[in-house]
Amino acid sequence: MGAAIAAQLARAGAEVVAVDVKKIQEIPSNVGFNERIHYQRLDITDEPAVERLLGDLVADFGDLNYVVNAAGICWFGRDGSIVTSEREVWNQVLAINLTGAMVVCRSAIPHLLVAGGGALVHLASVAGLRTSDGPMDAYQVSKAGLISLSRGIALSYGPSGIRSNTICPGAILTPMIQPLYDDEPARAVRMAERTPLRRLGTVDDVAAATCFLLSDEASFITGTDLLVDGGWTLALA
Amino acid sequence: MASELTTRGGDCQYLLADVRSAADFARLATYVGSALGGLDLLVHNAGIYPTSTIEEMSEEDWDLVHDTNLKSTFLAVKALLPELKKSSAGRVVLISSITGPITGFSGLSHYAASKAGMNGFMRTAALELAPHRITVNAVEPGSIATESLNELGEEAIAKMVNLIPVHRLGEPRDIGNAVVFLGSDLASFVTGRSIVVDGGQTIPEIPE
Fold first, then answer.
1. Which residues neighbour B164 within 8 Å (Cβ) at sequence distance 6 or greater?
2. If you measure CA to CA, which chain A residue comes closest to B202?
3. Which are the catalytic amino acids of B?
4. What is the pLDDT of residue B40?
5. Confidence band (pLDDT; 50, 70, 90) for B7?
6. DSSP letter for each residue of B71-130
């Protein structure tokens, strides 16, 4: 998802610094980084490293205008009920999905203020608004926390010209979930059938919504959650 | 109105109609079918908000607001559904409000109920029309600088601006932008949802 967002932002004319905990050699070659997308290896749970990188990129590129929190993990199979899953799962999922996003916001907002404002989009999930199949307690709590964090930022920094919104994707075909569908193709069919629009979402669906919320077209939209779920959460069943 | 829009670069046809009238919508559907051969996007924007407390409100007051704001939503979608089905990517966007779906407003019980009703209709219409690849969404405007709002006077508007985290009123263009996004291919996986366009006004637990 992050790669698709980076690509759309670059096409829209932005200089994009994409970060991931992986080495660049481990990033799939089809991600398509180009001269407008600058890759940096970064662990978002390492606050001094996040601060350093943001300082460097402002020095190299000038003002920071937009921030997208797309980093996240979902431990299918290991994440479950809080009673039965390992404590380590909770710690890791919360550390990356919620605390990591908080660290990025905390480090980025001073730069956005220097730039005279800006916009943040956080990739949450419909699981943060409802529940996960499964269950996956750590994941859904991390996403609910992210939604709440976004609102807090929207309220605190609205007067300074900073907007904050979330995207809540439903069933999206991403590289993270692809292996699961490869192992069990019927799962992909089931997810598409449960979606009222009768298809899985694409990373481009999510990227388009992200770019809209970042853009000046959305300059009066803040503190909201945009669901990109094909109607997934509309019906009870 | 049509000539103003046409000079802005669009091709605009104006049809005088009463949104409370099924016959008028039938006339519109016939025109759309014959002149355009189908419909890609239906935007329902008509609405009224005369203020009245529940104590003072007559049954006629209630009915007028509900017929204009809510029944018209059903009439519009029903009448134009055959034309929307002809599109490969039909879109319906309803202009709802934060009043009703999220907040209350003294003197607007009929309006608030009609707007909450629009959202309920929208969610179910999204499910019913999804098999036809038609998406149904809404926009919930907050405080927008429309002509009727400007009539409140400078002092009232300044107070209102203070309650909005981004410290400005919305412009009609802000609502237009959200409608354009929901009506476009960019939002083809978004259905049954509303986008709140309120500058963050409904986030605080207690307004400052």
1. A158, B142, B143, B198, B199, B200, B201
2. A223
3. 111
4. 97
5. confident
6. IHHHHHHHHHHHHHHTSSS-EEEEE--SBTTTB--TT-HHHHHHHHHHHHHHHHHHHHHG
Picking from A217, A220, A230, the nearest residue to B189 by CB comes out as A230
Q: Is the CB of A196 less than 8 angstroms away from the CB of B130?
A: yes
For residues A177-185, average pLDDT: 88
Q: Give the containing element (helix H, strand E) for A140.
A: helix A137-157
Chain B residues 133-162 with CB within 8 Å of chain A = 133, 135, 142
pLDDT at A25 over 80: no
Distances in Å between the Cα of A39 and the Cα atoms of A32, A33, A63, A184 are 11, 8, 18, 33
At residue A14's C-alpha, the angle toward residues A213 and A37, to 5°, is 115
d(CA A203, CA A167): 12
Interface mutation vs chain B, best among A160, A211, A221, most B CBs within 10 Å: A221
Instruction: State how far the Cα of B181 lies from the Cα of B93, in Å rounded to an integer.
Output: 10
**Residue A236: its pLDDT value, please?**
77
CA torsion B106→B110→B116→B118, rounded to 10°?
-150
Average pLDDT, chain A: 93
- Token pair listed for B135: 């998406």
Residue A175 confidence (pLDDT): 83
Angle at B181 between CA B175 and CA B184, to 5 degrees: 135
Residues sharing a CB contact under 8 Å with residue A62, sequence separation 6 or more, in sequence order: none
pTM: 0.92
Nearest to A217 among B177, B199, B200 (CB): B177
> Looking at the complex, does the CB of residue B85 fall below 8 Å from at least one CB of chain A?
no
For tokens 């590129």, the residue is A61
Chain A within 8 Å of B131 (Cβ-Cβ)? yes
Alpha-carbon span A212 to B200, nearest angstrom: 17
User: Strand order in A225-228's β-sheet?
Assistant: A66-69, A118-123, A162-169, A225-228
| A19's tokens | 């970060």
